C-alpha cells in the first residue's frame, strides 16, 4: 500500500501543492537567473518553487548537497503523511534513486580547489557528492536499518527505486519502505552537454511553453530539479490504514540497444511484465502517466510502446513533464506519486502546451483540463539513457 507521499518540485514545496498545480495545468519552468547562465545556449529550467532553506535549519542545510536536501524534505513529508508508522528500524528500508547524485558539489568543490587550494575545500565534500548520500541521510534521519539503497539508472532511477521497494516487501526483507528519487543538477556543465547533444529545448524566449510532450512543435526536454518519495507498507502491518493506492506490480528491463536512444522492444517488455506481475490485463488500465520528455524521437518511441501493449484499448494518457520539466533521477518517482494521486482522486492531469498533437502518437492524450476517470488500475513509465526501463502498475486500494 502507498500510505504516504512527499515532494518538493518546480510546482510546489509539498506533495499536495504539486498535485493541485498539476491538476490546474500550471507552469513550473522559468528563466534561470544566475550569473553563469549568460553565455549558455540553455537558459531555462524547472526550478524549485520553494527553496530547501525554508524547510531545513541552516546547519543541516550546510552539510548536505542540494540533492540530499530535497530527498530529506520529501521523505520527512511522506513519513508524516503516512502517520509515522510504528515499525522496528530493522524492518524499515530506504531506496532513493538519483541520476547524478552530488555532481554539483563535486564540480563546485573542484572549482574551489583550482581557485583557492586544498585548505578551502569543504570537509563535507565526500559525503555531499556520494550518489548514495540521499538514501543514507534519509536512513539516518528516520532510523531505517533494513538497508539504504541507491538505484542509479539515469531517468529511470526514481521508478526503479519504487520497484525495488516493492521487491523488499515481497521478499520479506522489510515491512515499510521509503522509496523515491531526487535530482538537483542545474549547473553549466550538464546544461552545456545537453545543448551540445541537441536534446534540450532552446525556447529561452518562451520558457512557459518550452516543454510540450507529444506536440508537433516539441524541440526537446527541459531540465528540472526536485524530489518525490512514497511510503510503501505491507498491507497487513496496519489493517484499515488509509492508502492512496496499491503498488500491484513492477518491472525493470534494459534495451541493450543504444546509450541514449530508447527502443520499443525493451519498453514493451517492461510494461507487459509489470502488468503480468500485477495480474492486470491491459484493458483494466484506465490511465497512463507517460515518461514523455518532449523530445521528437523519444515521445514517439513511447507512443509505439503503448500502441503495442494496449492495441485498440485507449487509456487516458498524461505527461506532467510539460509542467515540471524533466527531473531525471526523480522523474519516475514523481510520476509514481502523481499516479497514486490519480487513482485516489480519479483525476488525470492535463498535458500542458499540447496544442497540436503529433498524429504519429495515436493516443488518448489529456489536454487543456484535468479529466475525471473511472479507473481501477494505472500505469506509469520511466525510461533512461543507457536503455533503462521501469514500469509500475498501481491499483485502487
From TrEMBL:
One of its GO terms (molecular function) is 3-oxoacyl-[acyl-carrier-protein] synthase activity. CDD domains: KAS_I_II. Belongs to the thiolase-like superfamily. Beta-ketoacyl-ACP synthases family. SUPFAM superfamilies: Thiolase-like (SSF53901). Its EC number is 2.3.1.179. Residues 1-396 form the Ketosynthase family 3 (KS3) domain. This is 3-oxoacyl-ACP synthase. GO terms for cellular component: cytosol. It is an enzyme of class 2 (transferase). Keywords: Acyltransferase, Transferase. It holds the Pfam family ketoacyl-synt. GO terms for biological process: fatty acid biosynthetic process.
Amino acid at each position: 500500500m502507498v500510505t504516504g507521499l512527499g515532494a518538493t518540485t518546480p510546482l510546489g514545496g509539498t506533495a499536495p501543492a504539486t498535485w493541485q498545480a498539476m491538476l490546474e495545468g500550471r507552469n513550473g519552468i522559468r528563466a534561470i537567473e544566475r550569473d553563469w547562465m549568460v553565455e549558455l545556449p540553455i537558459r531555462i529550467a524547472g526550478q524549485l518553487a520553494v527553496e530547501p532553506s525554508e524547510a531545513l535549519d541552516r546547519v543541516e542545510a550546510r552539510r548536505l548537497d542540494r540533492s540530499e536536501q530535497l530527498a530529506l524534505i520529501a521523505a520527512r513529508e511522506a513519513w508524516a503523511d503516512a502517520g509515522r508508522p510504528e515499525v522496528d528500524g530493522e524492518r524499515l528500508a530506504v531506496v532513493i534513486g538519483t541520476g547524478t547524485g552530488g555532481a554539483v558539489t563535486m564540480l563546485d568543490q573542484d572549482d574551489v580547489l583550482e581557485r583557492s587550494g586544498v585548505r578551502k575545500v569543504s570537509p563535507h565534500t565526500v559525503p555531499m557528492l556520494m550518489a548514495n548520500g540521499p538514501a543514507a541521510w534519509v536512513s539516518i534521519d528516520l532510523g531505517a536499518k533494513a538497508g539504504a539503497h541507491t538505484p542509479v539508472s539515469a531517468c529511470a532511477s526514481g521508478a526503479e527505486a519504487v520497484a525495488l521497494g516493492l521487491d523488499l516487501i515481497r521478499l520479506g526483507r522489510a515491512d515499510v519502505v521509503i522509496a523515491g528519487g531526487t535530482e538537483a543538477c542545474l549547473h553549466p556543465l550538464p546544461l552545456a552537454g545537453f545543448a551540445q547533444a541537441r536534446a534540450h529545448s532552446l525556447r529561452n524566449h518562451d520558457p512557459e511553453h518550452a516543454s510540450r510532450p507529444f506536440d508537433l512543435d516539441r524541440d526537446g526536454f527541459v531540465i528540472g530539479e526536485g524530489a518525490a518519495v512514497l511510503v510503501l507498507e505491507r498491507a497487513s502491518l496496519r489493517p484499515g490504514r488509509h492508502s492512496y493506492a496499491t503498488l500491484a506490480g513492477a518491472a525493470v528491463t534494459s534495451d541493450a540497444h543504444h546509450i541514449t536512444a530508447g527502443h520499443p522492444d525493451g519498453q514493451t517488455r517492461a510494461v507487459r511484465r509489470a502488468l503480468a506481475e500485477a495480474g492486470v490485463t491491459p484493458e483494466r488500465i484506465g490511465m497512463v502517466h507517460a515518461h514523455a520528455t518532449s523530445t521528437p524521437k523519444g515521445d514517439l518511441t513511447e507512443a509505439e510502446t503503448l500502441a503495442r501493449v494496449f492495441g485498440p484499448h485507449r487509456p487516458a494518457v498524461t505527461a506532467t513533464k510539460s509542467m515540471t520539466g524533466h527531473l531525471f533521477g526523480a522523474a519516475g518517482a514523481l510520476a509514481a506519486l502523481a499516479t497514486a494521486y490519480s487513482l485516489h482522486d480519479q483525476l488525470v492531469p492535463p498535458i500542458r502546451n499540447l496544442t497540436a498533437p503529433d498524429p504519429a502518437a495515436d493516443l488518448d492524450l489529456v489536454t487543456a483540463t484535468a479529466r475525471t476517470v473511472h479507473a481501477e488500475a494505472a500505469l506509469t513509465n520511466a525510461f533512461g539513457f543507457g536503455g533503462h526501463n521501469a514500469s509500475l502498475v498501481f491499483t485502487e486500494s
